[in-house]
């Protein structure tokens, strides 16, 4: 290594994956200059000012006191670098190049963190993602801001060093302060504020559909007049979803961390995302100039709730087609294609017409017939075809709302039933990379779903309608979930009949 050249390591996020970046700091004779090269954005180019001030305020000679040309190269040069997470690596590289700290082994360490002007370290995005990359590449130590340490410490194969400021990092490097790896501390579980099913009066058919959707990961559409409880039912569904396993928690946490949402550790509860109808395409699907996960990825392994479904822009609704089938979304850019996971359960709610009262028994609809048809046609056939459960949510009489019922089933009881159904699915898919019935492809559906003779006969009758192949397989998967809720090994005619009752059949 040249006398005034130092190399340290940092990382860049590309989607939800981290890429190793080598930070080279070189000093040359000449008038003072501080240049950062390697396809850096504006925030990164401003690092020279943050590094100057943080070094000065940490009691170290800063670059602007040097009458030398300083060049910082971020390699590989063809990868776009964005953000301020390189500040700590640049500062450490500068101190090494100027011999202000003693030489140490840099090949097994990664430095990440944004510097404040007083030398404090501010948190970064994607700490867990970077820790996974570090472990895969064989790095031993990952220096991170204190706020990110617990999240990254989930990865056991790399030692996470929690630092509060630049001076502390220097002291650890020079062994003046002991290097104590951060130990992962599970965050305290959040108390669920989801409504209890026992507190929701009436709507037994909708509750049953929500139970099936939660058990098998099926998409659901609720239709009914305003104020009957569609949003309440959707929020109640969160309370009956089974907890995530470790792999699912890591997947979801990596998505949220890459999106810049503070998590403080592994996420334990399944996500519930409810974007507004005015949300843009990048906000829903993901992307942007610096591509980030969208709402459908933030809902990965959880629920994406779209209220007033027809009011979303048509191109946004149509963009859900591929993610609903593939469980992932691909964002194409000039420099390549990024993939974000998006294995979500769609729960949508809509009014039956523009005024909302078409079919209501107590209030007359003021819409013309063509207005009703035009409104319902806002949801295209291909999207409708991808929704397994269609349920009507009628008005509940006031007398029923005022009546106290002791026979209503609580969310706690429903959770136990769903957990048993999920256990059957886990056993069924133990050698496959799927976890719910809704994730099966057509071949898996044919091989893993066993129909009773009566179910075969019933299927022969309904397949004489204009049932699409996609609808046929989705029908079978829903019937399999209904059978799982009853702990049945094979699918009977009653299970297929119930699944069939939840599908919209314009041809019938």
Rg, alpha carbons: 28 Å
Strand content: 15-25%
Total DSSP helices: 21
Number of domains: 3
Quote the distance from N terminus to C terminus.
78 Å
Chain-averaged pLDDT: 92
What name does CATH use for the topology of the largest domain? Rossmann fold
Q: What about the largest sheet?
A: 5 strands, parallel
What is the number of strand segments? 18
What is the level-2 CATH architecture name of the largest domain? Answer: 3-Layer(aba) Sandwich
Stretches where pLDDT falls below 50 for ≥5 residues?
none
CATH superfamily of the largest domain: P-loop containing nucleotide triphosphate hydrolases
By CATH reckoning, the class of the largest domain would read: Alpha Beta
Class by alpha and beta content: alpha/beta
Spatial order of the strands forming the largest sheet: 11-14-17-10-18
> How much helix is in the residues?
25-40%
Shape: elongated
List keywords for this structure.
508 residues, alpha/beta, Ribosomal Protein S5, domain 2, Rossmann fold, Helicase, Ruva Protein, domain 3, 5-stranded parallel beta sheet, 4-stranded mixed beta sheet, 21 helices, 36% helix, 18% strand, elongated
Walk me through what this model shows:
The chain has 508 residues and is an alpha/beta fold. The protein folds into three domains: 5-173, Ribosomal Protein S5, domain 2 (2-Layer Sandwich), CATH 3.30.230.10; 197-412, P-loop containing nucleotide triphosphate hydrolases (Rossmann fold, 3-Layer(aba) Sandwich), CATH 3.40.50.300; 440-501, Helicase, Ruva Protein, domain 3. Helices cover 36% and strands 18% of the residues. It has helices at 42-45, 47-57, 87-97, 127-136, 146-152, 166-173, 204-216, 230-238, 246-258, 281-285, 295-298, 314-318, 321-326, 369-376, 381-385, 398-401, 411-428, 442-448, 453-462, 469-485, 493-501, and strands at 5-14, 17-29, 33-37, 68-75, 109-111, 114-115, 121-122, 141-145, 159-163, 220-223, 272-273, 286-287, 292-293, 303-306, 328-333, 336-341, 345-350, 389-392. The strands form six sheets. It has a five-stranded parallel sheet. Strands 1-2-4-3 form a four-stranded mixed sheet. It has a three-stranded parallel sheet with strand order 5-8-9, sandwiched between helices. Strand 15 (328-333) and strand 16 (336-341) form a beta hairpin. Helix 4 (127-136) crosses helix 5 and helix 19 (453-462) runs parallel beside helix 21. The radius of gyration is 28 Å and the shape is elongated. The mean pLDDT is 92.
């Amino acid at each position: 290594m040249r006398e005034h050249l130092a190399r340290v390591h940092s990382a860049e996020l590309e989607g939800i994956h981290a890429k190793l970046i080598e930070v080279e700091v070189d000093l040359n004779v000449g008038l003072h200059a501080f240049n950062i090269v390697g396809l850096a954005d504006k925030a990164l180019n401003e690092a020279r000012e943050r590094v100057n001030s943080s070094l000065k305020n940490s009691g170290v000679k800063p670059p602007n006191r040097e009458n030398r040309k300083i060049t910082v190269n971020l390699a590989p040069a063809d990868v776009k670098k964005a953000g301020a997470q390189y500040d700590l690596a640049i500062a450490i590289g500068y101190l090494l190049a100027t011999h202000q700290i003693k030489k140490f082994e840099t090949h097994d360490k990664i430095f990440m963190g944004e510097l404040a002007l007083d030398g404090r370290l501010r948190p970064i995005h994607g700490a867990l993602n970077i820790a996974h990359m570090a472990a895969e590449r064989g790095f031993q130590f990952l220096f991170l801001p204190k706020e990110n340490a617990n999240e990254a410490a989930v990865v056991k194969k790399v030692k996470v060093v929690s630092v509060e400021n630049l001076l502390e990092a220097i002291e650890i490097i020079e062994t003046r302060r002991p290097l104590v790896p951060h130990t992962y501390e599970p965050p305290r579980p959040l108390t669920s504020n989801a409504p209890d099913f026992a507190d929701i009066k009436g709507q037994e058919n909708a509750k049953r559909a929500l139970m099936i959707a939660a058990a098998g990961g099926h998409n659901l559409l609720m239709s009914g007049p305003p104020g009957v409880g569609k949003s309440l039912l959707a929020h109640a569904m969160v309370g009956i979803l089974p907890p995530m396993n470790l792999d699912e928690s890591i997947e979801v946490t990596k998505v949220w961390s890459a999106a810049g949402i503070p998590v403080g550790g592994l996420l334990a509860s399944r996500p519930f995302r409810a974007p507004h109808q005015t949300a843009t395409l990048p906000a829903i699907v993901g992307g942007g100039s610096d591509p980030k996960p969208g709402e459908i990825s933030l809902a990965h392994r959880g629920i994406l709730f779209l209220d007033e479904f027809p009011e979303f822009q048509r191109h946004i609704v149509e963009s859900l087609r591929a993610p609903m089938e593939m469980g992932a979304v691909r964002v194409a850019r000039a420099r390549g294609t990024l993939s974000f996971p998006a294995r979500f359960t769609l729960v949508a709610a809509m009014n039956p017409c523009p005024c909302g009262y078409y079919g209501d028994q107590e209030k007359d609809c003021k819409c013309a017939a063509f207005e009703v048809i035009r409104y319902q046609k806002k949801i295209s056939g291909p999207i409708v075809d991808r929704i397994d459960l269609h349920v009507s949510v009628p008005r509940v009489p006031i007398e029923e709302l005022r009546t106290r019922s002791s026979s209503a089933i609580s969310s706690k009881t429903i959770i136990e039933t769903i957990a048993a159904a999920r256990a059957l699915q886990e056993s069924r898919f133990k050698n496959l990379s799927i976890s719910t019935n809704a994730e099966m492809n057509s071949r898996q559906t044919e091989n893993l779903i066993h129909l009773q003779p009566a179910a075969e006969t019933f299927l022969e009758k309904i397949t004489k309608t204009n049932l699409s192949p996609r609808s046929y397989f989705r029908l079978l998967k829903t019937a399999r979930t209904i059978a799982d809720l009853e702990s049945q090994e094979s699918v009977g005619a009653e299970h297929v009949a119930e699944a069939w009752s939840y599908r919209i059949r314009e041809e019938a």
